[in-house]
Write a structure and sequence with these properties.
Length: about 400
Amino acid sequence: MIKEHIKVVIATDSFKGNHSSYSVGELMKTGLLRVFPQADVTVISVADGGDGTAESLCQAMQGRVIEIDTVGPLGNLRSAVNSKYIILNENIAVIELAESAGLAYLSADERNPMNTSTFGLGQQIVGALNNGCREIYIGLGGSATNDLGLGMAQALGYRFFDSDEKNIDIMGDTSRTMAEKIDSITKINSDNVDKRIFEAKIVAMCDVDNVLCGKTGASAIYGPQKGASPQMVEKLDKAIAGAAIIIEKDLGKVISEIPGAGAAGGSGAAVIAFLNGSLKRGIEIILDLIDFDSIISGADVLLTGEGRLDSQTANGKVPVGVAGRCMKKNIPCFAIAGFLGQGWKDVFNCGISGVESSMYDGRGLNESIKTSTEDIPDAAERMFRIIRGAMLIEK
């Protein structure tokens, strides 16, 4: 007889712009229970370090949401924004850069990395330290900035000087562009830095390998989506390369060639240079925090997914992150995607045994979003009918 009381763990990313991680999981659960009504199903909320990571962890670990007023990406050109961060287990903070300096705060006309800074991120970090947190994880996705994290550093007490020993106000000086301010730095002073930073464990969730400067650097790759023209990209790249030399001279940190240093306009490098922190794949941090290996222990099947499954999925996204953990425990892992993009078959090399899409009938994305509440359970039902049939073959 077929085993009816199968144990299934559902750990999927959100379908961005449509459903949260947990919501997607519940919809998948609905479909699989049509096939295995006696199944023991656990739905957990996961993310990969991008937008929604803090919310996902808060739900998975019953965390606390802390609200804090910070400056937005435009600093004193815009009134304070209500940022949030999460506290887990009373002393672990999860912060998203996008909460204080995200593209979502700006209209298309306002996007310009010559005007934006990460000062608000520094305020979020101070807030977490004030709440007793000494383990801080920072999600770098969705930023509107390309300031090498200097705004953040200023908020934490770092001071920057030009060749005339004049103070450079990274966030507040609106008379010069960000590139001009960065390019004028000749000295960095850390005497007034909040020393609690160096008592804390600080890790940035980083899922890209871009170095700081050059053709694959922060400015060249991510600057255009933040509103940078080719001329801006050239100026920002040159200025940041120069600042990296000053950081090495004054702080002893070599950051230029570190994979991931270019994340979020150089904020990856800033975590290393100014916070004495480190960079790590977001999905690995999250799976460790929620003790994922214990959750899946004894599971018969794991179901994962994301809104778009393509060649990028294999580069540290949620589906392959959870699949990797399943491989170590010989648990078969399957994925459901809203859409299958170019290179989706790459996931078969990463531990995913089968893939199903919730889109069908040739409908476009917008139409599929409207019917996703019905389509996702249907996709899960199709997947588990195949699994049930495979169980018959095994007999």
